[in-house]
């Protein structure tokens, strides 16, 4: 048994901190942790219940668990948890989910007000070192994200109106597999029953219909990795111009140079790899290849060969005057 906590308020806070760890707590263990008797623990549990904390008794041996209630009671956070929440709230205020910025700022203000001095200094240092590069990104209705997530959790088909990049409107019936935030956009990945194939959809273009459809049995996504699948779709399949190029370095050497959405890298051997990529023009393909900063071989298509040749000639022309000096 630990040294008992004489102050009832301090003991109550320590008890609440223990109960916020998601597990079942036998009364004897709580008594040992607090350095008090089991009777005192039972009395303190009743005090927490009186303050609105839903502490439930577990079945079997006498034990306790903190459950969800009808309201949000005060939480106890350790130093790292408090910093993580503060940084997360600060990030959300500049995010792409509409309608929650004001609530995030209010929550952040409440948290910063009660942070001890040592944590405020650490948070200030973190915020000064964090640089946000804002870019144009569509705003997403949080209710749409919640509707998609609920349908996925219940394994129910989601029916929605969808307008693609060309403006064509369709009604889709999809078995939702995941919602992914990728390159400042939110995507729904799922099995499209009308197309009998996997598809990805921009969430800002999704308008769910109520009610949801029948329940479904989950399917295996191609490759078993939803992020890899989405990366493949966005980097190649969705673009009008695509190519497969041999790079003169191993996939292990180049893995950090291929950014999300650029393409997918395939190992060939210890000195070569193959890059599958797509873009809206042959010129964009050529630019991305040079950005990898490694030798490469282009076998086609013809428009990419022409774009790489034109880029090379333009670069040579830019330094022609230097060669004559």
What does this structure look like?
It is a single chain. This protein is an alpha+beta fold and 325 residues long. 41% of the residues lie in helices and 21% in strands. The chain has helices at residues 8-19, 27-34, 38-50, 79-92, 101-114, 117-129, 142-154, 226-237, 251-254, 282-291, 302-318, 320-323, and strands spanning 25-26, 55-58, 63-66, 158-163, 169-182, 185-192, 197-202, 206-208, 241-247, 263-267, 273-279, 296-297. It has a 5-stranded antiparallel beta sheet. It has a 4-stranded antiparallel beta sheet with strand order 10-11-9-12. A 3-stranded antiparallel beta sheet has the order 1-3-2. A hairpin with a 4-residue loop joins strand 6 and strand 7. The mean pLDDT is 82.
Notable features of this structure?
single chain; alpha+beta
Can you give me a brief rundown of this structure?
This protein has 325 residues and is an alpha+beta fold.
Layout of helices and strands, plus pairs?
Blueprint: H1 8-19, E1 25-26, H2 27-34, H3 38-50, E2 55-58, E3 63-66, H4 79-92, H5 101-114, H6 117-129, H7 142-154, E4 158-163, E5 169-182, E6 185-192, E7 197-202, E8 206-208, H8 226-237, E9 241-247, H9 251-254, E10 263-267, E11 273-279, H10 282-291, E12 296-297, H11 302-318, H12 320-323
Antiparallel strand pairs: 1-3, 2-3, 4-5, 4-8, 5-6, 6-7, 9-11, 9-12, 10-11
Helix pairs in contact: 1-3, 2-3, 4-5, 4-6, 10-11
Order of helices and strands: HEHHEEHHHHEEEEEHEHEEHEHH
By secondary-structure content and strand pairing, the structural class works out as alpha+beta
C-alpha end-to-end distance: 86 Å
Helix content: 40-55%
Strand content: 15-25%
**What average pLDDT do the residues reach?**
82
Largest sheet data:
5 strands, antiparallel
């Amino acid at each position: 048994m630990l040294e008992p906590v004489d102050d009832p308020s301090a003991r109550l806070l320590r008890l609440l901190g223990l109960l916020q760890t998601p597990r079942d707590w036998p009364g004897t263990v709580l008594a040992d942790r607090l350095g008090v008797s089991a009777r005192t623990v039972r009395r303190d549990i009743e005090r927490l219940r009186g303050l609105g904390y839903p502490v439930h008794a577990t079945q079997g041996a006498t034990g306790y668990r903190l459950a969800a209630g009808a309201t949000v009671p005060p939480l106890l956070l350790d130093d790292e948890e408090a910093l993580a929440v503060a940084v997360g709230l600060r990030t959300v205020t500049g995010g792409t989910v509409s309608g929650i910025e004001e609530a995030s700022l209010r929550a952040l203000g409440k948290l910063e007000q009660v942070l001890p001095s040592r944590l405020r200094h650490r948070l200030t240092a973190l915020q000064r070192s964090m640089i946000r590069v804002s870019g144009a990104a569509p705003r997403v209705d949080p209710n749409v994200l919640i509707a998609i997530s609920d349908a996925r959790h219940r394994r129910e088909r989601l029916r929605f109106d969808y307008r693609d990049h060309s403006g064509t409107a369709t009604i889709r019936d999809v078995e939702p597999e995941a919602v992914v935030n990728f390159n400042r956009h939110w995507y729904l990945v799922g099995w499209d029953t009308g197309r009998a194939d996997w598809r990805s959809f921009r969430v800002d273009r999704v308008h769910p219909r109520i009610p949801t459809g029948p329940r479904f049995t989950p399917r295996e996504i191609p490759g078993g990795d939803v992020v890899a699948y989405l990366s493949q779709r966005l980097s190649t399949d969705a673009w009008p111009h695509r190519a497969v190029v041999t790079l003169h370095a191993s996939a292990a050497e180049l893995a950090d140079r291929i950014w999300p959405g650029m393409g997918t890298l395939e190992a060939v051997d210890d000195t070569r790899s193959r890059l599958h990529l797509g873009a809206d023009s042959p010129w964009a393909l050529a630019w991305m290849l040079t950005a990898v900063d490694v030798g490469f071989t282009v076998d086609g298509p013809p428009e990419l060969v022409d774009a790489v040749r034109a880029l090379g000639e333009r670069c040579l022309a830019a330094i022609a005057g230097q060669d004559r000096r």
